[in-house]
Amino acid sequence: MALDPWTLLLAVVLAFFANDLWRVLGVLFSARIDEESGLFAWVRMVATALVAALVAKLMLAPAGELALAPLWLRVAAVACGVAGYAVARRSLVAGILAGEAALIGGVWALGV
């Protein structure tokens, strides 16, 4: 069953407005944002808190295959990630790679 081209066009336009419109507006208005403003500092703090909560949830109450790794290994992987981040001069990529390597290596070594 072939889809009507107008239906596909409508789906693309609606998807744009649901997702990419906010990115375009962000680019347009980003030059006007004062990075030292109280509002921007609050947004940064909320974003940091959300990431910290996600990491804590994945570490303390994991779902799926991650739950097979023991708690001590998950905590050690997070510690390795933080250490990698600090050693590489606040490189997020280095922190993520260090944490992943520790977790994957630990799971492999334990045979989980």
UniProtKB/TrEMBL annotation:
<protein>
    <submittedName>
        <fullName>AzlD domain-containing protein</fullName>
    </submittedName>
</protein>
<feature type="transmembrane region" description="Helical">
    <location>
        <begin position="41"/>
        <end position="60"/>
    </location>
</feature>
<feature type="transmembrane region" description="Helical">
    <location>
        <begin position="92"/>
        <end position="111"/>
    </location>
</feature>
<keyword id="KW-1133">Transmembrane helix</keyword>
<dbReference type="Pfam" id="PF05437">
    <property type="entry name" value="AzlD"/>
</dbReference>
<keyword id="KW-0812">Transmembrane</keyword>
<feature type="transmembrane region" description="Helical">
    <location>
        <begin position="66"/>
        <end position="85"/>
    </location>
</feature>
<feature type="transmembrane region" description="Helical">
    <location>
        <begin position="6"/>
        <end position="29"/>
    </location>
</feature>
<dbReference type="InterPro" id="IPR008407">
    <property type="entry name" value="Brnchd-chn_aa_trnsp_AzlD"/>
</dbReference>
<keyword id="KW-0472">Membrane</keyword>
